[in-house]
Design goal:
By secondary structure, the protein is of the alpha+beta class. It contains nine helices and eleven strands. The protein has a seven-stranded mixed β-sheet with strand order 3-4-2-1-7-10-9. Strand 5 and strand 6 form a beta hairpin. It is globular, with a radius of gyration of 19 Å.
Length: about 270
């Protein structure tokens, strides 16, 4: 198995085992394709220690299986996310200026055996951001529909691997995992440049914003749903000419092979009839 595959899976396992990961994200996209990304996330020190161990294990597994090691950039990104240090994170973000990404705010604090990261990034054109290496894992797709609207949608992390659907089938399993996953919460808010017409099962929706929340304490399938389900929002274009691009799909999810297929995928995800 290539380390490129191993690292994200081990990182997710470490995340689940540590629990108490809390992520709040907000994406604002403007009509001229510029925008702003705000994120606050908390990483327990226990998770940081686990990630260090998992990366070491990934090296050993890759060497033993004859796989292709991850590039230093891939390792660096994983470490920055789960082992954040402000100087290193700032240096990495400053390097993204080539894609028109700018740091408006960055703060990393350690408190109560956890690290809290707050950052606000602005970007000149989302099409340039989509060219960045990290976008394949953490980005989204933007496509124009046949009726002239736009669809912004994320790809699922996986359709099968690490898919804990068995949690729903066994109360005993749920009781066992509850202490490990308690406190896990991921929230994503999107503010598009046009009026929202459809969205895929969000927790909150208005004509101008939509938000998804995956909270294990409120729903024991939250982690499984976050892995498997795309988040999609459709909005009126109003004469806009936004760039279209597609985020690459994971290995076990079929990638749409045409604009029509992309349109069908995103429309279905948004619950269109």
């Amino acid at each position: 198995m290539h380390k490129l595959v191993i690292v994200p899976l081990l990182a997710l396992l470490a995340l689940l085992a540590a629990g108490c990961i809390r992520v709040e994200q907000k994406l604002t996209l403007n009509a001229d394709a510029s925008g702003k990304f705000q994120v606050t996330y908390t990483v327990p020190e226990e998770t940081t220690q686990r990630i260090r161990a998992m990366l070491k294990l990934a090296d050993e597994l890759s060497e033993a299986s004859g796989g292709v090691p991850a590039t230093p950039a891939e390792d660096a990104l994983t470490k920055l996310v789960f082992d954040p240090k402000e100087p290193e994170l700032r240096t990495w973000l400053e390097a993204q200026a080539v894609h028109g990404i700018h740091i408006d705010e960055l703060d990393v604090e350690s408190r109560s055996a956890r690290r809290e990261v707050k950052m606000t990034l602005s970007f000149d054109n989302i099409a340039e951001v989509a060219k960045a290496d990290f976008f394949a894992r953490y980005g989204f797709s933007l496509a124009k529909t046949v009726d002239g609207q736009y669809m912004l949608f994320t790809r699922p992390a996986t359709s099968s691997a690490l898919d804990p659907t068995w949690i729903a089938d066994s109360q005993d399993d749920y009781i066992m995992l509850a202490p490990l996953l308690s406190g896990f919460r991921y929230a994503l808010e999107i503010i598009p440049p046009g009026t929202i017409t459809k969205a895929s099962n969000p927790q909150h929706q208005s004509p101008y914003s939509v938000q998804w929340i995956f909270d294990f304490d409120a729903d024991h399938l939250a982690v499984a749903n976050l892995q498997r389900k795309p988040m999609t929002v459709v909005f009126n274009a109003g004469g806009m000419n936004l760039p279209e691009f597609r985020q690459s799909m994971p290995q076990d999810v079929a990638e749409p092979t045409s604009p029509a297929a992309t349109n069908a995928l995103a429309t279905a995800a948004a619950g269109a009839p």
